[in-house]
Structure formats: structure tokens, C-alpha cells
Write a structure and sequence with these properties.
By secondary structure, the chain is of the alpha/beta class. The chain has helices spanning 3-15, 18-25, 29-43, 59-84, 105-116, 129-137, 153-156, 202-213, 227-235, 281-296, and strands at residues 48-51, 54-57, 92-97, 121-126, 143-147, 158-172, 193-197, 219-224, 241-244, 257-260, 266-274. Helices cover 40% and strands 22% of the residues.
Length: 309
């Protein structure tokens, strides 16, 4: 059994198609087919069901895939550990993050980090908390910036450190009945339609929990893909929302009214990693730097009062 055969098997399993796998591996399809067949002969069982629709793992193939993925993961961890002996200066950080930190906070920290470590490479992905944590659990990233983690820390092997704690503000249409107030109690919005980000968002879970604590579950009339969209839809009069300060520093032509909430709920943005897996030196360095940078350069605090045009 050769390492090349295992790599071929892994790619075919991922692609589910021999032609796409051959293209990805830069090899001829007949050669790829022969290597898969040799592997099956050595194991004494078929790894794939073959049909015109593609290659589908058999029960044996699914079991074998688990161990191959684990082995390649250990191989990559070992290679990264050797690199780390040379220090974090030439490492590679694979990270996922929330859209809310992607406009200013994360780019500013990245720019400052790259002054210190100009040769560190980054692979960055952006999505909701649930999606970024799925990538983390699957080993596709080593670090993510998330909020309102849905998993039990001990059971999932997740470890985290807080980066930022922010109060949430009420975002109202300009003609809302409470728009002239200096502040608002959250229960005053119990009968309003809400505009929220999608269900995979950690911020949405924070908002729903805060509303439940004061006696209501928000009626979600509209969902947006990101906080800028939510903010714009609120300004257009489609509902109310709760937004963190990070989402309130850039404005379009339509502007909602922003009011502080008495006894305001907060959200916590965290750096999250898998405590049972090797964390490369460059990733550790960036995680620690990110915490230090945000502490030293916190986002500008929103001044209480009206912020509509």
C-alpha cells in the first residue's frame, strides 16, 4: 500500500467522480482507476460503488476513509510541527471569521500582524458561527472568530478566549413610535416585526435569548445575510433589530435610528480552536496577537442617542 494510493482514494472519495479527481490530481484517469483497483485488491473489498452517476463509497470505503483522513491529518500535523521548530515567521494560518469583524476589526489586526510577521501566509474563510465551527471541527481551519458557541466545550473539544464584548443597540426605522426616545427597554419591541441575520448566526441566538429573558420571542419578518443588509432593511422600515457597535460605523444613504437599550444585552466575540489538535505556531502567534491588538485598539464606542440622517 503506497501513500500515493491513499491520496488518490481520498480525492476520489471527496470528488465522487473519477474524471474530476483525475483533473485535481493532475493524472490520467486510467492510471487513477488502476491505482484504486490495486488498493481494493490489497484490501480485499470494493471501496466504491461505480455507476454512471459517479463513485459512491461502500460501507467498507466509508470506514477506511475515516482512518485515511485521520492519518493524513496526523501527517500534516507532523509536517507543521517540524516547520514550527523554525518559529512562526514562515507559517500558514487557516482561519474562518464572522462577517461582522471582516470590515474593519480583522483587516486592521491582520495589517498590524503582517508588519511583525510579513512571511506568514493566510487562508481566510467567512461565514456564520455555525459554519465556521463546522469547518473547525472538520479540520478545514485551525482558528475561527465566532460568537455564542452552540456546542458544549468539553464534549466538542473546543477551547476559546474572548476578544471583544459589546453591548447591543436597538435599530429602529426613522418613523418608529420610539424613535424620539433617548433609550429603550427591550420589552417595548415585543410586538414589532424583527429583521435578523440567518439561523446559523451566533448573534441571532444572542438576540433571541435576550428577548426571551424579558418575556417574548421575536417575530422574524425578514432575514438578511449580513449585518449591513439587516441595518439597511431596518432603515427601509421593514422591522426593528438589535445590532452590535461593530455594525454601526459605516452608513448607506438610508439610516436607521440607533438607541441604547436599558440593561443592554451583550455579545462576546471569541477566538476558538480545537484543544485536542495541534495548533501551529503561526496560528498561536496570531491568536495571541489578535487578543492583544483588540485590547489595545478597541473599536470606537458608539455615542448614545439618535444616529439617523
Amino acid at each position: 500500500m503506497e501513500l500515493r494510493q491513499l491520496e488518490y482514494f481520498l480525492v476520489v472519495a471527496q470528488e465522487g467522480n473519477m474524471t474530476r479527481a483525475a483533473e485535481r490530481l493532475f493524472t490520467a484517469q486510467p492510471s487513477l482507476s488502476r491505482q484504486i483497483q490495486k488498493l481494493e485488491d490489497e484490501l480485499g473489498a470494493p471501496l466504491f460503488d461505480r455507476s454512471k452517476r459517479g463513485m459512491r463509497l461502500t460501507a467498507v470505503g466509508e470506514t477506511f476513509l475515516t482512518f485515511v483522513e485521520r492519518g493524513f491529518g496526523q501527517f500534516e500535523a507532523g509536517r507543521q510541527a517540524v516547520r514550527d521548530l523554525l518559529g512562526p515567521e514562515h507559517g500558514h494560518v487557516r482561519m474562518a471569521f464572522l462577517p461582522a469583524v471582516g470590515a474593519d476589526l480583522l483587516p486592521e489586526a491582520l495589517a498590524a500582524f503582517r508588519v511583525r510577521y510579513p512571511d506568514v501566509q493566510f487562508t481566510l474563510r467567512q461565514s456564520t458561527t455555525l459554519e465556521t465551527l463546522r469547518w473547525l471541527m472538520a479540520g478545514e481551519v485551525e482558528l475561527c472568530i465566532a460568537t455564542a458557541l452552540p456546542y458544549g466545550r468539553a464534549e466538542s473539544g473546543l477551547a476559546s478566549t474572548p476578544l471583544l464584548v459589546e453591548e447591543l443597540y436597538a435599530a429602529l426605522p426613522p418613523d418608529h413610535r420610539c424613535a424620539q426616545q433617548d433609550a429603550i427597554d427591550l420589552h417595548e419591541l415585543a410586538n414589532d416585526p424583527f429583521v435578523l441575520v440567518g439561523g446559523g448566526s451566533g448573534l441571532r441566538r444572542v438576540i433571541e435569548a435576550a428577548c426571551q429573558q424579558v418575556g417574548f420571542l421575536p417575530h422574524v419578518a425578514v432575514e438578511g445575510d449580513d449585518l449591513a443588509t439587516v441595518r439597511g432593511l431596518v432603515a427601509a422600515g421593514l422591522g426593528v433589530s438589535l445590532l452590535p457597535g461593530l455594525a454601526l460605523h459605516e452608513w448607506g444613504r438610508l439610516r436607521p435610528v440607533i438607541l441604547p437599550i436599558r440593561s443592554a444585552p451583550t455579545w462576546t466575540v471569541e477566538a476558538v480552536w480545537h484543544s485536542e489538535r495541534y495548533l501551529p505556531a503561526a496560528t498561536r502567534a496570531f491568536r495571541d496577537f489578535l487578543q492583544e491588538y483588540i485590547t489595545a485598539h478597541p473599536p470606537a464606542r458608539l455615542q448614545p442617542g439618535r444616529h439617523s440622517s
